[in-house]
Amino acid sequence: MCAEYTTFGLAPAMRAGGVRTDGGHRVHRDFVDFVVDGRPLLFRLSDLDAVSPLASDVPPAIFTAQVRSLLLESPAPLPGGRYVVYGCPECEDLACGAVTAVIRQDGEDVVWADFAWQTGETADLALNGYPGIGPFRFRGAEYRAALATLLDPPDRAPRPRVLLIGARAAVLAGLAAALRTIGIGADIARDAHRVPAEELRGYGAVVFGRDTPERERTAVLRAFADARVPVARVDGLAPVVPVLVAQIEHALDRSPAGQRRLTGLTAGPGHAEIEVTSACRVTLTAYRLDRLSRTRTRDLLDEVLPPGRHRLALDPKAVRGRSFLVARTATSVLATAVTPEAAH
Hints:
Blueprint: E1 8-15, E2 18-19, E3 25-26, E4 29-36, E5 39-40, H1 60-70, E6 82-86, E7 98-106, E8 109-118, H2 125-128, E9 136-138, H3 140-148, E10 161-165, H4 169-181, E11 185-189, H5 197-200, E12 205-208, H6 214-226, E13 232-235, H7 241-252, E14 262-268, E15 271-276, E16 280-289, E17 295-305, E18 308-313, E19 322-328, E20 333-338
Parallel strand pairs: 10-11, 10-12, 12-13
Antiparallel strand pairs: 1-4, 2-3, 4-5, 6-7, 7-8, 8-9, 14-15, 15-18, 16-17, 16-19, 19-20
Helix pairs in contact: 4-7
């Protein structure tokens, strides 16, 4: 028996949704990720946009079936004792591709091995295997205890929902429509006066438009505090829907701060700095408001970056005037304003 054990745990994670100015979008997904030796397993796959089978928006019966399957209480869903570890976040169809692994019991232990990228009934380890990942040997008691907590949780994570506060009806309506498209519920109001606590508990974030006076923001936050409802505050950077969506996605991220891939985004004079904790694909997009308040968009980066802090030069034409940057990985997103000095 192998004496090398790997710790097993679970942690909330998010596939960051988003919208593009051309009308395209990415669906928001909340899921439970596998934490191996204190680090999300997904982070070992640098260029993968995927979610685990333990997604919060699947029906309870299917969610429970997935947990029991990982507990080896039912036969493996794929030939060769293989299980889907990460799948397509949009449709979860195996034809789109999935990361699978052989999961088996070895005495009291549970072993995950032979990780592979799979698009059909069988996996070709020689062609699509992940030789640098696994095998992992977990202590059976630790493994089963972690998964068992999902069978009868205190309450399943509700569908994400946000409250939009502001006076610019057209911007708020466009933002609400975009959020609903990617799977985030949104309601629009001028304030939270006399809103029952039961309703306030349904919101994970409250978003304030730039035109909302500070006294009104304080009153709304006091209403949540009086109802003993913790809520994330989002102060909108600009009337640009993709930027606001990015801010909201960041506010709704429930993953532990120490287990996030994208941890920093700043824009200084002539450059931007991005910080990531593991190798991952990063996109960086600039949004600029022209003199007629029209949004101009420029894609600045789309590549896999190694862990660390990265300094990128900014094209002055892409960030002149009122400009904003949005950085994304598959699981994280950050937005920031470009300071006037950075535009020259």
